[in-house]
């Protein structure tokens, strides 16, 4: 599915900035890649990897930390970075609970939240690539 299809699917808005699109794609892969048939519930690699005890959530937590690191390079204020880190910590800790953690991952979607926070920051600062 292309980014344009995802945008039409209501999953993501397109960004003109390749760096933001890359983070959108990564967040989409982790949080919303697939849909449970017959429902509007989307899930991604984070929920699937969470089924692997111990390793899965740690691995996706590292990828989520990469998104926060990339956001920090866009001069995101510390209080917003703290929210992003909190989202990753909650997702990793609660997501590590066997089975229930994967159910939590279906609904929490920390990576999409963090990309949304980054976009909001870029829009507030008037950066042209925020959309």
UniProtKB/TrEMBL annotation:
Bilayer-spanning residue ranges: 43-68, 88-108
InterPro entries in alphabetical order: DUF4112
Entry keywords, A to Z: Membrane, Transmembrane, Transmembrane helix
Pfam families, alphabetized: DUF4112
Identification of the protein by name: DUF4112 domain-containing protein
Native organism: Nitratireductor mangrovi
Source lineage: Bacteria, Pseudomonadati, Pseudomonadota, Alphaproteobacteria, Hyphomicrobiales
